[in-house]
Amino acid sequence: MAKNLSTFAIARKLHVDPGSVANWIDQGLLKAHRTPGGHRRVVAEDLINFLRKHKMPIPEDMPAMATRILIVDDERAIAELVSRAIQAAHPDFEVHTANDGFHAGTVLATLKPNVVILDLRMPGMDGFEVCKLIKSEQATQHAEVIAMTAYPSPENEQRILDCGARTCLSKPLDMDQLLTEVSTVV
């Protein structure tokens, strides 16, 4: 069961003023809900996602959560290659794959990954649509999107960045560059 934290408990953990925590919530930066009495509560996992996104240290007494990565590519061989490279570099990460945009949408809702490595050209729902979906949903908008394409162009790169991706890498992938990008965002 997810642990709910009050703004005061969060403030104590992070050594900040409770008003700062309330402001983060009110600004939509930190996901929260309200009790029937009107008090703000934050699920521990949402706090950890917020801290990771804003490059803030995670308190030692917070439950350790694995970094979750979703690789979306219709070419299974590439998805598996990227998965193996990430698992070799970061054995503590949870790495999942999806082989089309529709499957990715299903997995996104339950997995809530920290990072999505996303191919732009796929049948059905393409990477642009998947990226828009990720960034439009409150449960997944924290995810960093690293796009990849075998058809690089300034137009495609700008379009995916406009959809909310962090960067767009060219295929064939430079694994060192990909691993650097992953390490930078987690």
UniProtKB/TrEMBL annotation:
Q: Which Pfam families match?
A: HTH_17, Response_reg
Q: Does the keyword Zinc apply?
A: no
The Response regulatory domain covers 68-186
Query: Could you tell me the Gene Ontology terms of the biological process aspect for this record?
Result: phosphorelay signal transduction system
Show which residues constitute the signal peptide. none
Protein keywords = Phosphoprotein
Protein name listed in UniProt = Response regulatory domain-containing protein
Organism this protein belongs to = marine sediment metagenome
